[in-house]
Amino acid sequence: MSGNLHVRNLDDELIARLKRRAARHGRSAEAEHREILRQALSAEVEPSFESLAAELRALTSSRVQTPSEVLLREGRDER
């Protein structure tokens, strides 16, 4: 799947640096931009579902939990 990404409001100096870097690597500024994003994001590790769930449990451990059957019963009784 291909998509487009538009980046607005970049400093002129940043654009110039991107163009110089692209020229050093023999690429267009757009190709260099893609490569920079690819490298930056490929190094980032996606958290597993288990670690996200554990983090959520830790964040909500001090909250009072209402069992779902109680909430369902309250909803039915309101009708």
TrEMBL record:
Tree of life domain:
Bacteria
Q: Which SUPFAM superfamilies match?
A: Ribbon-helix-helix
Annotated ranges, domain Antitoxin FitA-like ribbon-helix-helix: 4-41
A Gene Ontology biological process annotation? regulation of DNA-templated transcription
Q: Gene3D superfamilies attached here?
A: Met repressor-like
| Pfam families tied to this protein | FitA-like_RHH
What protein name is recorded for this chain?
Answer: Plasmid stability protein
Q: Per the UniProt entry, what species is this protein from, by scientific name?
A: Tistlia consotensis USBA 355
What high-level taxonomic lineage is stated for the organism?
Answer: Bacteria, Pseudomonadati, Pseudomonadota, Alphaproteobacteria, Rhodospirillales
